[in-house]
């Protein structure tokens, strides 16, 4: 039994971690297991695999993800900073290796195979980059003379450039939105925020005219008659067929023809089989996680923990919002997984690392520890 009287690392973790936030994350994972079982068998059958191939792999990836999530949630803010630096450096090296040696699929190089495992390094780069940016922003406030903000901008340009070379504009826009939100939270001047927003809009404008792939998706979104909109149309039909209560487990029609029913469009499959009520429940879970994390971040007195937790919560929420918006045809189609629901090993483990850091940063810590962390940073850069 875990009690307050017995001071062990496990009891310390249990009584300081946000258990409601942890329960919501576990609920998402369980929903992902159910929806993977519902959506993946037809896809596996179509490509000649065992019907439960993707479901079994989903469970296989879920086990190390839970280990990573719990393990990272034990970390201190200092350990989180150090781990983020290591993970980000490895992710950048893997992205470079992917550009050099990765196979080209549908005009993009996003995956590299290491020891028989397909790895999408950009997934690990996202949360680690946000944590490093949060640390730099907190340092720029503590030490105005330190060029921390400039360093954060340089790192952003470097990462975005690598993603554009793949190309992966979806991940690029996600990182830009999370970084811009963090930049705003850190109290930067509105002129800088407006300038960055203008630069992002200009980059999207250039991509429209210079990258046919991007232009095609925007055109199909604005005018469905201009190209193939099969997946989006099928997803919309799934929402219509499901109604409020759904057709029932295993009774969905859309998954029989949707190529990405277990990844990008699992939300539509869930709507058809379990109804709009399930979609609203998932939306409520995502909203609760983001709002709860932001409120806990606001309550902490350590600037780094506040910024990092806020950035990770925004990154998590924006990714979920993009996936659901694509399924509902509210934005142009873009391959983006629904956190802990869609199939994908790299995505699931990186999300576990991200929310593990989120749980660690929002743990209740005594004031003296926060002061000790600040004092250590001050001594380091004195």
From TrEMBL:
It is a multi-pass membrane protein. Coiled coil: none annotated. It is found in: Cell membrane. Keywords: Cell cycle, Cell division, Cell membrane, Cell shape, Cell wall biogenesis/degradation, Glycosyltransferase, Membrane, Peptidoglycan synthesis, Transferase, Transmembrane, Transmembrane helix. It catalyses: [GlcNAc-(1->4)-Mur2Ac(oyl-L-Ala-gamma-D-Glu-L-Lys-D-Ala-D-Ala)](n)-di-trans,octa-cis-undecaprenyl diphosphate + beta-D-GlcNAc-(1->4)-Mur2Ac(oyl-L-Ala-gamma-D-Glu-L-Lys-D-Ala-D-Ala)-di-trans,octa-cis-undecaprenyl diphosphate = [GlcNAc-(1->4)-Mur2Ac(oyl-L-Ala-gamma-D-Glu-L-Lys-D-Ala-D-Ala)](n+1)-di-trans,octa-cis-undecaprenyl diphosphate + di-trans,octa-cis-undecaprenyl diphosphate + H(+). Its EC number is 2.4.99.28. The chain crosses the membrane at residues 20-39, 59-76, 83-101, 145-165, 177-210, 274-295, 307-328, 340-361. It holds the Pfam family FTSW_RODA_SPOVE. InterPro entries: FtsW (IPR013437), FtsW/RodA (IPR001182). It comes from the Bacteria. Pathway: Cell wall biogenesis; peptidoglycan biosynthesis. This is Probable peptidoglycan glycosyltransferase FtsW. It comes from Tardiphaga alba.
């Amino acid at each position: 039994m875990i009690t307050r009287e017995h001071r062990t690392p496990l009891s310390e973790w249990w009584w300081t971690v946000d258990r409601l936030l942890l329960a919501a994350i576990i609920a998402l994972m369980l929903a992902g297991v159910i929806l993977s079982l519902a959506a993946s068998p037809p896809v596996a059958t179509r490509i000649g695999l065992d019907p439960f191939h993707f479901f079994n792999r989903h469970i296989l990836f879920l086990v190390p993800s839970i280990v990573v999530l719990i393990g990272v949630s034990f970390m201190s803010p200092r350990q989180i900073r150090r781990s983020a630096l290591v993970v980000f450096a490895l992710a950048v090296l893997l992205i470079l290796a992917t550009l050099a040696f990765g196979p080209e699929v549908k005009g993009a190089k996003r995956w590299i195979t290491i020891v028989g495992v397909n790895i999408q390094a950009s997934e690990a780069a996202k949360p680690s980059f946000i944590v490093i940016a949060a640390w730099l922003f907190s340092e720029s406030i503590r030490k105005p003379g330190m060029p921390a903000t400039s360093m954060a901008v340089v790192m952003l340009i470097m990462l975005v450039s690598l993603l554009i070379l793949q190309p992966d504009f979806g991940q690029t826009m996600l990182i830009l939105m999370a970084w811009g939100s963090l930049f705003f939270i850190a109290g930067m001047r509105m002129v800088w925020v407006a300038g960055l927003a203008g630069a992002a809009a200009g980059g999207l404008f250039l991509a429209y005219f210079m990258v046919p792939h991007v232009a095609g998706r925007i055109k199909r979104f604005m005018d469905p008659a201009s190209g193939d909109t099969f997946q989006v149309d099928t997803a919309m039909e799934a929402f219509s067929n499901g109604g409020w209560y759904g057709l029932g487990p295993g009774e969905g029609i859309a998954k029989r023809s949707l190529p990405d029913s277990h990844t990008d469009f699992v939300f539509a499959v869930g709507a058809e089989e379990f109804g709009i009520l399930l979609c609203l429940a998932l939306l409520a879970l995502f909203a609760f996680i983001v709002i709860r994390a932001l409120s806990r971040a606001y309550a902490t007195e350590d600037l780094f923990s506040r910024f990092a937790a806020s950035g990770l919560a925004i990154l998590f929420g924006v990714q979920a919002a993009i996936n659901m918006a694509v399924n509902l045809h509210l934005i142009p189609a873009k391959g983006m997984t629904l956190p802990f629901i869609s199939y994908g090993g790299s995505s699931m483990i990186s999300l576990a690392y991200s929310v593990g850091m989120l749980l660690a940063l929002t743990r209740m810590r005594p004031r003296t520890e926060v002061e000790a962390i600040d004092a250590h940073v001050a001594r380091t850069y004195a």
